[in-house]
Amino acid sequence: MSKKNLSDLLSAFKKIDSDAQLRKNESQIANSLILPFFQNILGWDVNDPEEFRSEEQILGLRADYVACINGISKFIIECKSLSHQIIGNIEFYKQAIQYADSKGKRYAVLTNFREFVILRSDIKPKNNNWLTLEVSNIHIDNIEKDLGDLLYFHKNTWVKDENLLRNLDQKINLDKRKSVDERLLSNFIKWRSLCISWLKKYKKNLFEQYDILYIEEEIQRFLDRIIFISYCEDKGLEDIRLKQYIPQFDQSLKFKSNTVTNGITQTFKLYAEKYNSDLFDREGLADSFNFEDEIVVSILKDIKQPENELPFDFSIIPSDILGKTYENFIGHVIRGKVKLEEFDNIEKRKSEGIYYTPQWVVDYIVSNSILPIIKKKSFKEILNIKIIDPACGSGTFLISSYEYILNYIEANEKRRLSYKERLSLFLNCIHGVDKDERAVDIAKLNISLKLAQKGEKLPHLSSNIICEDSLSFRNTDNILTEFGDWSLRFPNVFSKNNGFDIVIGNPPYLSAKDLTNGTNADSIRREFGDLDDLYSLFIRLSDLLLNSTGTLGFIVPNTFFTLSELPLIFWTLIS
Question: Taking the domains of the chain in order of start, what are their residue ranges?
Fold first, then answer.
């Protein structure tokens, strides 16, 4: 630590603190004091987006940053103006804890430079008092003598030895909280159970007319709509409506009044007009459920006013965490004919290759696959690049690829792309396929959340995200020369680009001997040979889908490199 750097910062602090206008300016405090402190005192390169990332401001009210090592986020910094007192401010504590928790980070540094507060987000508050999650606080008057626990947030700690954080962890000895994805999963299961129980009681005929899987999908679409509306409200894109429905519900009127349900139905119609997305304007059972108010309000309370917990803020929950929640939710299935029960079907996950990919792995593959191809290209040139994940699941690789290219363009062109340009970027470049309809719907929801912008209609994504089995995309036996159905599904890719530039993702891990007739086993073996594992088939498929200069970025097990034939194919694809 340079004493001169700290002395200069303290002098700048005194000057800003004496100016009534500057004291109120959060951005001024962040840029003039807090960021220089993390750079000059704690060793972070705040100008490198791979190391110190500025998060998109929520409602324009907050300046938030994430400290990263090799692009992988480690902890968050939430900045406030000097006009606020930080220490002991429970609303600020809850805000910072919620932000760190939503990002899946256990530490938050809340600061206005005069005061630094270190907070834990992954433990339960004692007696539901969120102030008990304060690890320590440091006042600027003492900082010249001792940085205290801020030393744990020096870059070297996170680069060389994160084990040192154990000493910091032990300062609060309380029970762990469930992570945000665990809480979300628990709620999804609860909400679906509530909806199914009510439908079984009041709309039995639905179960005679429709398959339980279809009813499940429509319940998910109902819930997805509420999630999307919550996101738009949390992001400040739309007026608050959902929370206002909660006090309208009177226990004495349940089963007699549908005030809330009618309001939700009208809100759905409003969003269908405004956003015009697959989520709202596709006709189905979700439009005719008409759940009673008690069901809807129970869901809204869990989101907006959970008991002994912070409310969910979908505007700050990353797409990979939401995707992880949904992928686990897909593994929970309904069974039974008379009495429907929910259970976690581990075998279903294995048989369908439903596995969550850690975000750091996704980021590594995305950057190494995409950067060499887009490097030194203009926005117009990048629009011609075609990327596909042939087993896209909830869309994690698709969204990460889109975000990576978007950030690259905006950093190089030093401007923010317009909504029309962002839309064009996604629709031209990003493609996905998955055989699970629920996964495809989740991918579309995740992408809609990423693209949503105030006053702008969302695109229909059915041409980019397709529900099919990638290994059954064929209508002739000459897929090797004509690509069968692929050329029909993605005509511009093959007619203008002669295939994809990048195939990316995490292919399903399933023994080929377990393939059934339902998965076109005979056809697969005829086209690709008698390989041992499904991921090997996806690699062979990628060889067909890529153009002559294309790149493959897949996760494969280490046993892959012990095979005699496939490594040659692999290195040919990535070279």
Answer: 3-169, 180-317, 355-574
| Average pLDDT in the chain | 84
Rg of the chain's alpha carbons, rounded to an integer? 26
CA distance 402 to 410: 12
State both tokens at 461: 């994504």
Structure tokens at 378: 């203009």
DSSP letters spanning 50-116: TTEEEPPPSTT--EEEEEEETTEEEEEEEE--TTS--TT-HHHHHHHHHHHHHTT-SEEEEE-SSEE
Fold of 355-574: Rossmann fold (3.40.50)
Report the alpha-carbon distance of residue 157 to residue 216 in Å, rounded. 47
Mean pLDDT for 524-548 is 75
Instruction: Specify the pLDDT at position 562.
Output: 57
pLDDT in tens, 6-33: 899 999 999 998 988 888 888 889 999 9
Does the reported pTM lie above 0.85? no
* Rounded CA separation 476/572 (Å): 26
Q: 355-574: same fold as 3-169?
A: no
Name the token pair of 43: 């060793």
| C-alpha angle 139-141-143 in degrees, rounded to nearest 5 | 70
What residue has token string 């401001």?
A: 57
DSSP sequence for 273-297? HHH--HHHHS-SGGGT----HHHHH
Compute CA distances 350 → 279, 353, 355, 357, whole Å.
28, 5, 8, 14
Q: Which CATH architecture has domain 3-169?
A: Alpha-Beta Complex (3.90)
Chain centroid offset of residue 74 CA: 16
Q: How far is CA 44 from CA 67, 87, 207, 243, in A?
A: 8, 25, 58, 40
**Residue entry with tokens 């809807």:** 296
Distance of CA 130 to the CA centre of its chain: 26
DSSP 8-state code for residue 127: G
Beta bridge partners of 108: 76, 119
Segment (H or E) for 431: strand 430-434
In the three-class reduction of DSSP (H, G, I as helix; E, B as strand; rest coil), residue 248 is classed as coil
**Cα distance between residue 571 and residue 57, in whole Å:** 42
Structure tokens that stand for 369 in this block: 């696959």
Residue for token pair 């989740």: 442
Terminus-to-terminus CA distance in the chain, angstroms?
44
Instruction: Give whole-number Cα distances, 102 to 57, 106, 122, 316, 530, in Å.
Output: 15, 10, 10, 6, 45
Give phi and psi for 244, each to the nearest 5. Answer: -70, -20
CB proximity list for 420: less than 8 A, separation 6 or greater? none
Q: Is pLDDT at 59 greater than 60 in this prediction? A: no
Whether residue 554 contacts residue 507, with contact meaning beta carbons closer than 8 Å, is answered with: yes
Q: Report how far residue 156's alpha carbon sits from residue 94's, in angstroms, rounded to the nearest whole number.
A: 28
**CA 285 vs CA 115, 212, 265, 435: distances in Å:** 53, 12, 13, 22
Q: Rounded distance, CA 546 to CA 573, Å?
A: 8
